Sequence to fold (209 residues):
Amino acid sequence: MQRTRGMEVRSINGKEYPLVSVVILNYNGELFLKRCVNSVLNSRYPNLEVIFVDNASTDGSVKLTRNFFDHDERLQIVESNVNGGCAMGYNLGAVKANGKYVVFLHNDTKVSPDWLKELVNVMESNSTVGVAQSKLLIMDSNKIFSAGGHFDHFGLCYKRGFGEEDQGRYDKLDEVFFAQSPTMAVRSSALKEVGYFDPLFFYHEDVDL
Fold:
C-alpha cells in the first residue's frame, strides 16, 4: 500500500521540521498495535511518515492495522512473506524511508507525544550525532527499561538503568555505547553509509549497527 509522503522539510512559524520516517516492526503483535500506532500518529511532530513492516504474521495484525489506520495518508504497510528477524524487517522499511532521520520502533511500544520532537532536536543541534534513543520505561510502570546500551568487562551488552525507579537520574543528554531499537533514531545518511542492518542478526541488530 503506497501513500502520499510528508514534505522533505516543513516550515511552521519560521521553524523547520525535517521529515522523519518511523519504521514500526511487527510480528504477531495484534494485541499491541492499536496502542502503538495510535501513539505514533498522535505525536506532536508535524512532518512524519510511518512505515509499518509486518514480518509474515499469522494473526490479524495487518487486517487490524488496515481497518483502523487506512485513512491516514502518513501510513504505508510493507508485508514480508518470511519472518527474517529484526534486521531484515527493519531494512525493508528503511529502504522505503524518505526522511532525514529513520526511527526504528517495536510494536509493543507506546510513545509520549513529544518523543519525536525531542529526538530530532538533539540530532539537529549536533551534526556529528549519528544515532540517538529515548529513555525507555517498562510499560505501565515507573521503572526504566533502558537509558542506553553499554558493555561490561566480559563483553556482554546490558541496558543502562534497567529495573531502576525513574527518579530523573537519566534526564540529561549522555553518550552511550549503542542505542536500542525500540526507539532508535538514525541519521539517514549514516545508515546508508554503513549499509543498513546486517541481516545475519535475527536479534541484537542494534548493537551491531
The mean pLDDT is 91. The first helix runs from residue 33 to 41. The two ends are 29 Å apart (CA to CA).
